[in-house]
């Protein structure tokens, strides 16, 4: 994958455009479509943005477009942390075993690098062509630039957290501008560029948008708060987070709403139900929602969050009083669809919830299963009898009889065994900004302020109030796990706070004893180094 894997041909970009629309394009496209004849007016740039959003959606699909339902793109941000592990038996799983397996030739690192630089180039293509266009108003130009620049910053957020210093590319790459002499810009330099992009987006994005899939002002505020925390600019982080927490348009979901409002449930878990994730559906907390749609051209992406997080309950057997083994659990919509249980919570993650906390309830986690196979009822049991899933011993590898989060539950009547999720999914939400605020206040020495932010967030889940004396960095990180399990890029959070090594070693029974200092950054892919013939691209220390 030459030139840092970052050259995204116009044909590939147009394919993204076609795949992300939520309605079928009925017009016959030109025989040859290039960036030069696409980006001529506002409609063309909107189509380009659609392609860019389609690229972002790949963050919850497989590593490659040729095999999009295997190897979750950012699996590395969940497994191998304090609250999650790879529930997979293979000795080749990096994030359980580390050591020599974590090396520059790992194909997943190359795929992630390629994906992010392809997305950056798609953004740069739009950004570079907007200023000279004479067929758009100033407002239209700023709106397109704001969305594109935010997504570019989002890509560099991933790159710096995963690899550290990386090439900073801010202009479109074409065959005419091919280069193979990239150098690594310092993390501080890349972060300065990210800040500029996010501040521009903050200025020109709307506070809300009738298009549920679009980024909004709160999206930029959110990522600025996180960036400033990473840079240890505590006052700026507090200010950015406060822009979200004090904006009534981004209020926490505190009441039942939407598709299952009349059924048992909680406000917290309502946000993750199919039909409830979007702002137009009542989710005021949503700041960025990935759009997926079954049987709509462009809506059928390859989101595999449920596939990776839901366990293999259909493979469980139960012994009856007759001593025989039965398979009493079949895949159903009620049980969230079919998963492969690749990712799983550590026992530590499961133990964080106090009694009465909605986030640790049966509505949030699958702690039991009901016998649902009439032809395979264990002798002594009955149909619909509830069988608890044990979770008192420490986590082990390849365990289908282990709880899982219900945030990614999805199935449909057409095919309950479908691999992909076709429901819209929250990528980021305002609840996290209360945690950003608490972290900033803690670092500023304002423990009462941190306690107030935490208490506000916890109250909607019926968790107890927090006092200033309880506030520590570990408490905030525990609270992030309670609130954001499987949503946040947990690896980034722990690296930002300097706690990845210690907390993973303490709380992850699988990977904790194997990680080492160098694993805090992944290696630069060897294929990238080899392709960069015009300059030396240094490898990260320890590889």
Task: Please give the order of strands in the largest beta sheet.
Answer: 1-5
Mean pLDDT: 92
Specify the overall morphology. globular
Largest sheet: 2 strands, antiparallel
- Tell how many strands the DSSP assignment holds: 10
Q: Could you name the ranges where pLDDT drops below 50 across 5 or more consecutive residues?
A: 1-28
Taking the alpha carbons of the first and last residues, their distance comes to 21 Å
Question: Cα-atom Rg, whole angstroms?
Answer: 23 Å
Strand coverage percent: 5-15%
Individual helix count: 18
- The ordered H/E elements are HHHEHHHHHHHEHEEEHEEEEEHHHHHH
Give the helix level as a range of percent: 25-40%
Structural class: mainly alpha
Polypeptide structure, described:
The strands form five sheets. The protein has a two-stranded antiparallel sheet. A two-stranded antiparallel sheet has the order 2-10. The chain has 543 residues and is mainly alpha-helical. 37% of the residues lie in helices and 6% in strands. The protein is built from 18 helices and ten strands. α3 packs antiparallel against α5 and α13 packs antiparallel against α14. The radius of gyration is 23 Å and the shape is globular.
């Amino acid at each position: 994958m030459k030139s840092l894997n970052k050259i995204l041909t116009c044909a590939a970009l147009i394919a993204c455009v076609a795949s992300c629309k939520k309605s079928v394009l009925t017009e016959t496209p030109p025989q040859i479509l290039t960036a030069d004849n696409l980006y001529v007016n506002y409609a063309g740039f909107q189509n380009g943005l659609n392609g860019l959003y389609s690229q972002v959606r790949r963050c919850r699909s497989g590593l490659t477009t040729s095999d999009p339902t295997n190897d979750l793109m950012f699996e590395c941000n969940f497994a191998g942390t304090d609250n999650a592990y790879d529930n997979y038996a293979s000795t080749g799983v990096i994030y359980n075993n580390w050591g020599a397996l974590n090396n520059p030739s790992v194909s997943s690192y190359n795929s992630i690098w390629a994906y992010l630089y392809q997305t950056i180039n798609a953004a740069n293509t739009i950004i570079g062509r907007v200023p000279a266009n004479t067929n758009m108003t100033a407002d239209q130009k700023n709106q397109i630039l704001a969305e594109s620049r935010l997504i570019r910053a989002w890509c560099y957020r991933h790159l710096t957290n995963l690899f550290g210093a990386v090439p900073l590319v801010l202009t479109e790459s074409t065959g005419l501008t091919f280069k193979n002499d990239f150098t690594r810009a310092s993390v501080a330099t890349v972060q300065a560029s990210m800040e500029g992009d996010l501040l521009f987006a903050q200025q020109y994005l709307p506070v809300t948008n009738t298009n549920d899939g679009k980024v909004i002002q709160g999206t930029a505020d959110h990522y600025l708060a996180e960036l400033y925390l990473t840079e240890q600019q505590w006052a700026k982080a507090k200010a950015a987070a406060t822009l979200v927490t004090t904006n009534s348009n981004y209020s926490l979901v505190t009441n039942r709403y939407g598709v299952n409002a009349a059924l048992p449930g909680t406000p917290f878990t309502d946000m993750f139900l199919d039909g409830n994730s979007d702002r137009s559906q009542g989710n005021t907390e949503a700041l960025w929602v990935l759009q997926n749609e079954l049987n709509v051209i462009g809506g059928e992406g390859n989101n595999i969050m449920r596939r990776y997080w839901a366990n293999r309950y259909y493979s469980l057997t139960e012994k009856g009083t007759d001593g025989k083994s039965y398979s009493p659990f079949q895949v159903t919509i009620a049980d969230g669809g079919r998963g492969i249980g690749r990712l799983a919570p550590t026992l530590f993650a499961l133990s964080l919830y106090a009694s009465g906390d909605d986030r640790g309830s049966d509505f949030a986690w699958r702690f039991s299963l009901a016998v649902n196979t009439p032809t395979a009822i264990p002798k002594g049991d009955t149909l619909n009898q509830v069988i608890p899933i044990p979770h008192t011993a420490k986590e082990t590898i390849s365990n289908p009889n282990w709880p899982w989060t219900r945030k990614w539950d999805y199935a449909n009547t057409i095919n309950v065994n479908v691999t992909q999720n076709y429901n819209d999914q929250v990528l980021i939400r305002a609840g996290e900004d209360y945690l950003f605020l608490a972290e900033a206040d803690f670092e500023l020495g304002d423990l009462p302020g941190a306690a107030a932010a935490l208490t506000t967030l916890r109250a909607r889940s019926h968790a107890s109030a927090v006092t200033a004396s309880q506030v520590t960095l570990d408490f905030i990180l525990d609270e992030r796990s309670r609130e954001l399990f499987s949503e946040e890029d947990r690896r980034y959070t722990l690296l930002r706070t300097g706690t990845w090594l210690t907390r993973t070693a303490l709380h992850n029974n699988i990977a904790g004893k194997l990680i080492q200092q160098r694993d805090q950054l992944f290696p630069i892919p060897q294929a990238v180094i080899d392709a960069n013939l015009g300059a030396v691209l240094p490898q990260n220390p320890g590889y």
